[in-house]
Amino acid sequence: MKIRVIIPNSSEPFRAGQEEDRKKAASAGVEVEVVCLQEGPESIESALDEALAGPHIIGEVVRAAQEGCDAVSLDCAMDTVVRAAREAVDIPVVSAGEASHLLALGLARRFSIVTVMDSTAEAIRENLAKTGLDRRAASVRAAHVPVLELADQERAFTAILAQARLALEEDGAQAIVLGCTGMSQVAARLQKELGVPVIDPAEASIQLAEVYVRMGLSGSRAAYGPGSGADGNRPSGGH
Amino acid sequence: MKIRVIIPNSSEPFRAGQEEDRKKAASAGVEVEVVCLQEGPESIESALDEALAGPHIIGEVVRAAQEGCDAVSLDCAMDTVVRAAREAVDIPVVSAGEASHLLALGLARRFSIVTVMDSTAEAIRENLAKTGLDRRAASVRAAHVPVLELADQERAFTAILAQARLALEEDGAQAIVLGCTGMSQVAARLQKELGVPVIDPAEASIQLAEVYVRMGLSGSRAAYGPGSGADGNRPSGGH
Amino acid sequence: MKIRVIIPNSSEPFRAGQEEDRKKAASAGVEVEVVCLQEGPESIESALDEALAGPHIIGEVVRAAQEGCDAVSLDCAMDTVVRAAREAVDIPVVSAGEASHLLALGLARRFSIVTVMDSTAEAIRENLAKTGLDRRAASVRAAHVPVLELADQERAFTAILAQARLALEEDGAQAIVLGCTGMSQVAARLQKELGVPVIDPAEASIQLAEVYVRMGLSGSRAAYGPGSGADGNRPSGGH
Amino acid sequence: MKIRVIIPNSSEPFRAGQEEDRKKAASAGVEVEVVCLQEGPESIESALDEALAGPHIIGEVVRAAQEGCDAVSLDCAMDTVVRAAREAVDIPVVSAGEASHLLALGLARRFSIVTVMDSTAEAIRENLAKTGLDRRAASVRAAHVPVLELADQERAFTAILAQARLALEEDGAQAIVLGCTGMSQVAARLQKELGVPVIDPAEASIQLAEVYVRMGLSGSRAAYGPGSGADGNRPSGGH
Amino acid sequence: MKIRVIIPNSSEPFRAGQEEDRKKAASAGVEVEVVCLQEGPESIESALDEALAGPHIIGEVVRAAQEGCDAVSLDCAMDTVVRAAREAVDIPVVSAGEASHLLALGLARRFSIVTVMDSTAEAIRENLAKTGLDRRAASVRAAHVPVLELADQERAFTAILAQARLALEEDGAQAIVLGCTGMSQVAARLQKELGVPVIDPAEASIQLAEVYVRMGLSGSRAAYGPGSGADGNRPSGGH
Amino acid sequence: MKIRVIIPNSSEPFRAGQEEDRKKAASAGVEVEVVCLQEGPESIESALDEALAGPHIIGEVVRAAQEGCDAVSLDCAMDTVVRAAREAVDIPVVSAGEASHLLALGLARRFSIVTVMDSTAEAIRENLAKTGLDRRAASVRAAHVPVLELADQERAFTAILAQARLALEEDGAQAIVLGCTGMSQVAARLQKELGVPVIDPAEASIQLAEVYVRMGLSGSRAAYGPGSGADGNRPSGGH
Description:
6 copies of one chain form a homohexamer. Chain A has a 4-stranded parallel β-sheet, sandwiched between helices. A 4-stranded parallel β-sheet of chain A has the order 6-5-7-8, sandwiched between helices. Chain A is built from 8 helices and 8 strands; from the N terminus they run E-H-E-H-E-H-E-H-E-H-E-H-E-H-E-H. Chains D and E meet through helix 4 and helix 8 of D and helix 4 and helix 8 of E.
């Protein structure tokens, strides 16, 4: 099984810093390739970033399918252009934000998301309304650390921990979902510190992609567009 | 007052066919300019189309603000990249789908939307969940006429009328919202035939844009991004 | 176009104090008449006030239609007897509370309402549940200034500002809707101070009434009663 | 214990026709008085009727409290002015529609309401949204028999039975709530015929009023107005 | 009329301590029998307790029906196995938690529940989601007094009062529902102290059971199982 | 990794018939043991069955943890006593119904469940309300084939197919979730026939259990009881 992880920004250093973790996130025997965009924003921290990155993401999704990948993991907790990506290809497209929310549902009644910025928090709130999972979310909080500064893991850990504690103590959360795939490295340490489940969206997304591939499941054509991936009218993305 | 209507596709014939109607949709003394995209999909009928059109739309929105327009009307019932557009500029950004839903709320308890295709219907259903207005929507139905074939007004009228009747008789709708700005020309005739309010999203959007300009209101920065339009870091769109 | 603004209380001094603002709230060329009730409560601050004012309001609404007005603006943020008023006449009936909520939906994801008293706050909460817009409301707060004391604009401004700040900082609001039409005079100043959209319900109601008249739209008979305004069985109100 | 049943219309023949049933609906030892309005609409079949009847209903509610009744049953499935009535007096005010919905919640997961007219159905739908009980309602259906023609019990029975069957077979209802207090006489027969619980709102309201009196419970002042019934500013109703 | 109150734990001292209160909770002429379980947990404070008590509760419910009781009151605010109990017998099965919530709906717009432990609070939250009444619940709070220590009434009163005040002042509650039937003895005193309705679930359950018996209503077979109580396949409970 | 699949009925032939499929449902290298109950109902088709099976299920869950299993899969689409099971042990407890719903969320906007009987359909509807996922469920339909007759695969296939088609064509479903773990054998064939994703709950549950084990995640103690599995007060189940 081969899974293509698509990081929807154009920061090669960010990609390089995540690659090892993504490979470790997969089960034994699963091949993971980690790519980022050739063009587009350096990080996805607003709806504007999402809009500008859109065609480039679609281009990578289509390329992954053409190159024989079994599934795509969109490596972004904001679930950027996930509907469009599912329309574009026949292989399963899993998105890190959504995947982490789904896993949280089986671990607690109410979860909170700790993300990077107010703008991503707001976009995630809107996503939760869209998927109807807002009923199970206690809060979405921002650690106020930009994506590309998460590399400073101590700072990231401290800032996320503070918001996670507030989520547990004041908002009624019972589990924490990390709201940025750049937070993967601190997930285990946070779980140990907090004593409740802490879900890494990047890992959740790869694991869920594996499940769909093993079970022979992919996005419903009745939900995601009337055409099929074999259709000659499919665009080839943002090129 | 000057309002820039941005048709988010690259079909100049479609734009030309709508221009007169858009100008008539505005109040006396309001200047309306109707543009479409230089590049991008020829029509917006899926999330994929939306993703590919995104940067081009943002580019036009930014240009409108730079050229001194008082408001932008995104002329699409699918409300494509409306969050991103509001992040990008300080002037009011009104979107045809959302505007038509808001007006419907003041006319009936339950409204139905009749749109062009199953794929647009599905995207509109997701938008209604996102905005929380699904509680007031009786149904979203597709007339199965592609955007660029709406120019055949008799065919369009007949197909929309049939779905609108089903919405009223079977789904409990009390008002009809047209789910494509290309349907403007048949709105009045449909209202006469059906005996319930029929809302043209293109007209709704221009009228609501005027209201926001007159009242000195624009998208909240607390909702749409922490930065401001004067911020030098704002991207100039997809160019 | 002629719009009749009906202030649903019997306080002539209150009416006189609002008249100029209402006329300024309309677009150029729109004639605005501002009336209040001949009988009934001196202010509307509870459901009890609403029940007692009901027939007198209906009487004025019917009179407006009979005297050739193009639309009615019910000038009360509690949306008193709005369903009944729409049943009573064929012209558009816009209500200040509802109108301000609709406009807020296009400006922010979550808005808060700052009203006069706990009793009006509670009635507005019930209205939001009824219209399904509670999903978008962050809170409803009371400034604890009775309607007829809003004339002391400094006191009103200070009290409303304090509650609006709490709404923004603690409740997650991104825009403020004023919860009493007697608060019109402080709206612009509040918006300047707070840096988020502040919506005056009286102005919103007149502007929305204009929109419906221009678009040829009025309350759906399928939603508001089976009869029509021309029906001889229509009551003539509370006289 | 003395309960005043207030029929919110001015039809003395209707009142007389219901009186015996109301007295039988109460438990042994409970005194029931059945009054109707001196003035106002002959039946309550629309929001307009409700608005016009409002002050007269409040007048009767206040009189009941002044004359030492232990509770009031508002004998109308449309729950007319129930908030105002609770603000007006300190004794429990139970309303037939709401009471019947509450009892249904303990008997089935989904109930349907069969009422008289489309206009009452629509008002009841709005009430269910307001109380949040729409999640448990399968449908609201109209038998298309006006209130004052329910006296023809055979016609009423046949029409209600037909709609109740549709509710059970097509809408997923598991219990039937009658949507007009004038339907009391056919409730038992319908239950026998349908094999599911059928709830008479008039009886439900009296029974629930008894419960509140026995338990020493009445409407919360925190919910229904800041003042108290002893307050000299309380209006004496519509006189 | 004979009502069997089933306390779903195996603590005879607890049962004995409640018996008198339950008999007083019924109307004149209603016979009340109070039983507890022969086996099973000593108190119900978690879902685990509920699962272990389940068959024993069902056994008692079936025995009550066989011995000619007119109704059963499940004396637990956690509404343990209420669906199963309704499937098992034809007589009305009322459950204390649900009954208290239903009565609260008629007294206030928002109620809070003060229960014994965090684990019962969490189970009650889940029940409110299940019944859809969470829209009307302001909060569920735990007094942190185990069921069997409620016998220390001063301690119980003080702890419950503190949480109830927080519910009223911080959560927006307008009425208090006690979240354990072992709290019956402090209900009246709390209501006097707090000035808002305080509902004793044990009393609510008996009173509601009486109502259903008087009205000839019982759980819908369409909602609670396809079989009937006369069906030979009905299990005889946990024996 | 060792996963214990607990079939919550006492039918050894049913268990034997499923064992092979469950082992095949796991990933390479994962050990799967399939047990059923020693005592209790022969199948779980009602809430009554669930209540009676409860203590026996808990007993098996506790035994699995004691015997060193890494996770438990509760092999029932009705999600019987899942909260209690999570309270009882520290290892992940995955339940087949919930697991299948979570996977469906990532494949389609609206899914329908096709289960065995009306009584299981009703219990599943209640579960969906409890988890808040009813917003994403198009319908729950019964194939009217009892659990133990599913062994007749042709009959099962035909009956399920018919209901699935109705779900897709009339209810708006875009994916099908099988509502009984005894339906595993027909899942693949149904998916081929229907052209939309068909989810086998038994497989979904095992796959999700693997994910949680690999990710080091288990039920939150903040959600599922204050105690821990090491706590001496933990019951040893129904023995």
